[in-house]
Amino acid sequence: MPKTFGVTLLALAALAAGTPGAVADSAAAGFPSAATASDKAGRIPGRYIVTLRQTATDRREDMEEAVTEASEHASDMGAVVHHVYRHALYGYAASMTPRTAAALADEPQVQSVQQDRWVRATAQSVPTGVNRVDADLSPTAAINGVDRRVNADVAVIDTGIDASHPDLNVHRSGGVNCATPLLPPNIDLNGHGTHVAGTIGALDNRTGVVGVAPGARLWSVQVLNAAGMGTTSSTLCGIDYVTQHADQIDVANMSLGGSGTDDGNCGRTNGDAMHQAICNSVARGVTYAVAAGNAHADARNTAPAAYDEVITVSALADFDGKPGGLARPTCRADRDDTFADFSNYGADVDLIAPGVCIRSTYPNGGYAIASGTSMAAPHVAGGAALYRATHPTASPQTVKSALQNAGSLNWSWPSQDGDAVKERLLRVSSF
After folding, report:
1. Which positions fall inside the Inhibitor I9 domain (predicted)?
2. Residue ranges of the chain whose pLDDT lies below 50
3. Is residue 27 part of a domain?
């Protein structure tokens, strides 16, 4: 049976509005079940994210010192600090009582105190996708069965990557495990992250599958654990790590999403710490590809898909890697070469890419078939890696524009698309 994957952030605000969170497995991470420990918006009792104020005159060194002092101050008040953020934003995540949280919120150096929330893996989804986006025609990908590797670094913010897989070039000394810190980052007890990683960069080595950017260096940034669960704070930890290594990491893939909106001000107006962190990470030069979501709804109510600073990707149902809509369905019922019947849509979607019945790498040297916008986004992350390999100084906005300009309208529409805009299909033959 085909695997079904994806990631849903049970966001930092109500399901209709708010900012995203991340979810962790209760057994592996020590967290209670989201179904019993949180409300419908996914808020986690007793867990908070504290963001510090920063003025135009505050130096980075001063802010890093302030973060240390603030987290120590919270500990003195009885809080248990889980993560400290010094790169994508300044602040920390901790367990504390509501009274302590309220007291901290009143302190002048504190910008916001928001309750932590759950995030979980959610998708439905082979190299038919690699064919459909013309990666096999890319001079940089140079797919011909000879193991020449694309010179780019891609962070997979997900359930981890199985570094022992022979078809993947995983950075052995890099990566971080924010979901289960006592375990190394280069493992994947769920499978979602390893599947995403293969679509991005599986080796062109005549075995298994090949990715869009074969052999790209993959960084395992684990924010979700064995059950595909994590927290907002663990996700922020991952973004913080990527930002810390922005001089090395070119692209980050986030095949996760959940309730939230874009306030048009990088999260400064609605107190969305994840939006602030991604904006700061993008400002450091990291291009983010994210899944649009699998609710067949407007992506404007899904985060991080709603954020303007990322490349939001919807899913195309394609069963043969070719245009024309002539193929019969394989692993799931849908129409060939049309908008996937589960995919989110809307003005926030920047590109469409194959996301149905995608074959890719899986833990323990295996391969699996899966569907979802979680499978579509890594095609775009691979495309971004190809572009950065030949344009190493390109900004995230330049990368986004290049991918959109190279895109094709050669797919059947409107089919299941829920809006009046036909987004461009990823095409990387010119990269």
Report:
1. 47-120
2. 1-38, 122-126
3. no
